[in-house]
Amino acid sequence: MKILGIETSCDETAASVIEGKDENVKVLSNVVSSQIEIHKKYGGVVPEVAAREHVLNILPVVNEALEKAGLKSPLPHLAKGGKKNPSYPSLLKAASIDAIAVTTGPGLVTSLIVGIETARTLAYAWDVPTIVVNHIEGHIYANFIRELKIQNSKLKTQINFPALILTVSGGHNMLVLMKDHLKYNVIGETIDDAAGEAFDKAATMLGIGYPGGPIISKMASKYEKELSQSFKSQIPLPRPMLNSKDFHFSFSGLKTALLYKLKNDKNWKTRIPEYAYEFEQAVVDVLIHKTIKAAEKYKVKTIMLSGGVSANKKLREQMAETIKEKLPGVHYNQPDLKYTTDNAAMIATAGYFRARAKKFTPWQKLRVDPNLELR
Ligand code: KG4
Ligand code: ZN
Predict the structure, then answer these.
(1) CA 169 to centroid of ligand 1, rounded, Å
(2) pLDDT tens-digit profile of 338-371?
(3) In angstroms, rounded to a whole number, what is the distance separating the alpha carbons of residues 65 and 63?
(4) Whether domain 163-334 has CATH 3.40.50.620
(5) What is the C-alpha separation between 51 and 114, in angstroms, rounded?
(6) Which of 40, 287, 309 most suits a substitution to test ligand 1, by most atoms within 8 Å of the C-beta?
(7) Where in the chain are the domains?
(8) 2-145+339-365 is classed in which CATH architecture?
């Protein structure tokens, strides 16, 4: 089954074609047009600007995804106007696309609408069903992308249920228990900022750019390489809610703690890498500690990471080490780096598993829901 995925919930315009068979998913194309350079100068995503960029980019991006997957039909009627390479997806039936999966929320309303209207139009023109995908569900399903030879169905994935997923990005921060495919139980979430949001705000305070996560991470690991084994930070930051009995998170206090440390340190500008290092470790410590506690309580068979922050090297490495040490019987999975931040391959993959469960939505009923809940 071939699925076209469309993702426009924030500042990436993305389209992808995947092929699914049984539990295996192969990515045939994965096109992401990022707006980071545009939003950088504002220090964050400007919704109106993001939506306009999606409008400009969506058709060329879908077209490229179809083309890279070898699915584009020739467009002689559009070429008439003298343009050699008209950037429009074929209005003829795209060869063997079985369904279109699209993110309908959560996210920015005006950005989501662009993806939804595109999916609606193509579904009507191609006469294929649409599939509603929750953006967070998409991030989770990045773990189910298996670049296997699709014919070799003996190679089974090692993802057994119940599974626990730590899903962390700029917009969300959750612990999700999955008893089976598409069955989600949110057992913990942030009561204020998400970890990615905290990274972004900390980087703004330190004046080192946007988005903060990758920059802080790079700076911290460079600093770490120069440290001795016995190093103890001189600027310790708190580990918020580390010992609370629930599985909720809070990162806004950590951000405020950093702000006060900087205010009281006349020489902070000379110690930026050390602050980055300590901030990153504080976030990672909390994320790992809570995940392990929840995995023990719910006796899960698999732990997975997802979301933009799952690109973080320290989180990936330290999570793997801690699970090996504390829960050796539990399988650990992390998405390939290219599927951690926003992309449409993850949306198409979640769409494929929804299609297997016959969860289609007629294009007439596609609705944007900026606060769509995971269920
Ligand atoms: O999933 P994503 O692309 O968009 C949302 O759904 O929010 O995640 C973006 C977030 C940003 O906050 C960014 O700073 C963070 O993921 N991020 C990272 C890293 N790469 C991206 N955070 C920590 N370390 C990274 N290497
Ligand atoms: Zn995301």
Answers:
(1) 5
(2) 999 999 999 999 999 999 999 999 999 999 999 9
(3) 5
(4) no
(5) 7
(6) 309
(7) 2-145+339-365, 163-334
(8) 2-Layer Sandwich (3.30)
